[in-house]
Amino acid sequence: MQVQKSIITLITGSCFLILSGCEKPEELGGCFYPDFESMQLVWSDEFEGGEVDTTKWSFDIGDGCQISQDLCGWGNNELQYYTSRPENVFVEDGILTIRARRETPLYLGAHAYTSTRMVTKNKGDWTYGRMDIRAKM
User: Fold this and answer.
1) What whole-number distance in Å separates Cα of residue 95 and Cα of residue 90?
2) Residues in CB range of 35: below 8 A, 6 or more apart
3) Chain centre distance of CA 11
4) pTM of the prediction?
5) DSSP letters along 28-58, please?
6) Cα(24)–Cα(112) distance, integer angstroms
7) Positive or negative: CA dihedral 34, 35, 36, 41
């Protein structure tokens, strides 16, 4: 997954997802679009510099088994072992790249796949808002 420069932002307001155009006006039970101009930017990452900004992101390392046997595969049978290695995650020219890899030989002697799991927990927590993300898969 590549996340392009100037694209991960969180703006306070109501949380919503627009998947298609509105077919009826709001007064007839159609779509409501909030006033974006009145929202305030509260968090963003432009992926500037040569590495992930650890003041905004943390990494979940492992496969979940280290927390609990019930969480192996992070609770949904994921096959990859998450790392923060440059082989799995890097920033270059304003683009965050997360790369899943098939590992030969097995990573740490037991894992056929690796990837990266990044979280903003305790670094970018919010309850409501608009999130703009530009990603390429």
Assistant:
1) 8
2) none
3) 16
4) 0.69
5) GT------GGG--EEEEE---SSS--TTT-E
6) 50
7) negative
